[in-house]
Amino acid sequence: MIKARVICLHNPGEDILLFRRCIDVLTSYGYEVVYYRTNDNAETHVCTIESIMDEIDTVVSLCHEDIANSPHPQTPIHIMGHFISGAEALLYGIQGSQREKVSTIVGINPLVQPAELLMKQSSSLKLRWRAKMNPNAIVDLGTDLSLFTKDTP
Fold first, then answer.
1. At what angle do helices 115-124 and 84-95 cross, to 10 degrees?
2. Per-residue CA distances from 83 to 25, 74, 80, 104, 152 (Å)
3. How much is the pTM?
4. What phi, psi does 143 have (nearest 5°)?
5. Sequential pLDDT tens for the chain (153 residues)
């Protein structure tokens, strides 16, 4: 049985090999990974925040529909992104139209500028943040870990 489906968002110009180890570990623990590349070809498509959110909406909807028709329709969906795609994942958690279908948003070293705007938007949704700076130091910003995972910390 699959624990969850993880939508791994692609950064512009990034190679899937960057996420190879992460995908291998997730799949070895029973997670299904969908590596999704947004349309970042500036010559044929103008990327806006709205178009990226629309693309993520489509992927979330397709995953949700696929899971709903599977033997395990309660399988959760998670979104994960690094740097630019981490910021896109966090923004999707705040304003994505299908965000209620997503159980967890994981932003790895997300590009969040200005941080005050993100905190202001997220505080209205009563989200709290925990930033892990390195394996030995944690800045705790009042995060309730149960909001992000069902696994024990």
1. 30
2. 20, 29, 10, 17, 26
3. 0.71
4. -75, 135
5. 899 999 999 887 777 777 888 899 999 999 999 998 766 555 555 567 888 889 999 999 999 999 999 999 999 999 999 888 888 898 898 889 999 999 999 988 887 654 555 555 555 554 444 444 344 444 444 445 555 545 554
